[in-house]
Structure formats: C-alpha cells, structure tokens
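PROTEIN DESIGN WORKSHEET
SECTION A - STRUCTURE
LENGTH: 269
TOKENS:
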C-alpha cells in the first residue's frame, strides 16, 4: 500500500500522466501552435506541462517531508525528556525511602562504603551516628500507625534540616536512622548528635489520628550512638556502624534521650 505521507508524489505522477494523455496524445498543444517538436511522439509543450505538474507536487512532497521530519524531531525530543524524567523517578524509587524521604539502607551503605574508602586512603576523619526513636512501639500502640508514620516523617525532616548538605542520612530499618558526617571528628560528631537530640525533643508533632479532638501535640525523643572511623586501615563501614550501634544501645541502657560515644573513641564517656 502506498504510504499516506507520499500522496503528493502519487498525485504528481498521476497529474503528469493525465497532462501527457490529454494534451500530448490529443494534439491540443500542436493545434495551438505551442511547439512543432516532439519527444516519443508527444510534443515538448505537453512534456513541459507534465513536468511542471510533477515538479509542483514534488515541491509539495518536499515541504511535507520537512514538516514531518520536524514533527518527528520534536517528538523525539519530548520522548527523550520523558525518559530522563522517568529515569529520575526510577532512580529515586530505587534509592530513597518512600516514607521519610532519606536514602534507603542499600543506597546509604553504597555511599558510606565509598566515603569509608576515601577516609581510610587519605586519613580523613569520618563519624557515624546511629539514631533510634525512643519508645516508638508504645507510641504506635497508643496513637496508631498513621501517627507513628507522621512522627517518623517529622523526625527525619528535623534531622535533615539540622545537618550540613554534605552529611548523609539513611533509614537503617524501622524507626532507626543512620547518619555519616564526612570530615568530622568524634568530638564534633558528639556535638552534632546533641544538637539533633535537642531539636527532636523540642518537636511538637500535630496529628489528626490521636483519637481526641483536643489532643495535645505528639512528642518524642531519640537516642544516639556516635562512632568515628578508627585509624586502623582494616576498618570498614560495617565496623563503623557496629561501633555506633553499640554506643546507641549504651544510650538506651542509660535511660534514653541521650547521646553516647563508642567505647575507645576520643571523647567517650
């Protein structure tokens, strides 16, 4: 079947043939005295009319082709933009926790591994914070999981807002968050952790799911374990997280809503 976008060429050929048949074979041009010369038995005037008709429709075909190419190019640009947007969305889905909006565990550890390697290679300090919401199960039991989600979101946002742009936050699992602070000593990491603890303690989280019209804002606290990358070259990201996790459990044993620094770290208490 002849393609639709080639109809001007088809019409041009058809028009040229009609011109040759009606003018050439009918002898119309010869009778009017346009030309006494002929080609293949058809006078040149008829050929001129046929070629003119064909050229007119070929020009129309070229114009149509240019317009089609422009539309196709624009569509390709739109498709490329849509693919880029889709890629961004897919990358976000693959790396970001959908509830809190921080890195998920896999993406966080990928970045932490690279940062640990850099710190070990160049001797730079790196501090990790393990953060856990205190009595979160009791909060869920009392107010419901919808309120628990609101508390997690508000806590995550508060932590991100109180960190530098170079610091990285991830969701370790459940109500646990983990942070790494590049170029940060243990002492400075402890100060950052205390800043985060105080900021979360001061949050007043409004919830529509507390079951009471005049309910007070929900409040929560966090416990934080702090550990810094030791100077031993063999230390990896799992060792750093383990040390911070041990310090976190020490903070919980000591009563929660506090900061503890890993045993053996400078500034530990």
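SECTION B - SEQUENCE
RESIDUE ASSIGNMENT:
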């Amino acid at each position: 079947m002849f393609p639709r976008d080639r109809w001007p060429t088809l019409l041009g050929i058809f028009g040229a043939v009609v011109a040759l048949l009606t003018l050439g074979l009918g002898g119309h041009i010869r009778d009017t005295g346009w030309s006494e010369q002929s080609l293949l038995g058809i006078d040149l005037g008829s050929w001129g009319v046929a070629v003119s008709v064909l050229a007119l429709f070929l020009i129309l075909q070229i114009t149509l082709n240019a317009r089609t190419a422009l539309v196709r190019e624009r569509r390709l640009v739109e498709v490329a933009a849509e693919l880029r947007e889709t890629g961004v969305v897919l990358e976000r889905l693959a790396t970001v926790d959908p509830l809190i909006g921080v890195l998920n565990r896999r993406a966080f550890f990928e970045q932490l591994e690279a940062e640990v390697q850099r710190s070990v290679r160049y001797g730079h300090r790196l501090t990790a914070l393990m953060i856990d919401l205190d009595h979160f199960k009791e909060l869920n039991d009392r107010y419901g999981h919808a309120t628990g989600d609101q508390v997690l979101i508000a806590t995550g946002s508060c932590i991100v807002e109180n960190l530098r742009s170079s610091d990285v936050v991830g969701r370790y699992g459940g109500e646990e968050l983990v942070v790494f602070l590049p170029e940060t000593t243990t002492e400075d990491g402890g100060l950052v952790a205390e800043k985060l603890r105080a900021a979360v303690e001061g949050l007043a989280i409004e919830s529509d799911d507390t079951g009471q019209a005049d309910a007070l804002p929900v409040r929560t606290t966090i416990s934080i374990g702090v550990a810094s990358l030791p100077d031993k070259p063999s230390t990896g990201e799992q060792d750093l997280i383990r040390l911070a996790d041990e310090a976190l459990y020490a903070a919980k044993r000591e009563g929660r809503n506090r900061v503890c620094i890993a045993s053996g770290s400078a500034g530990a208490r």
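SECTION C - NOTES
Residues 28-35 have pLDDT under 50 and may be disordered.
The longest helix spans residues 44-95.
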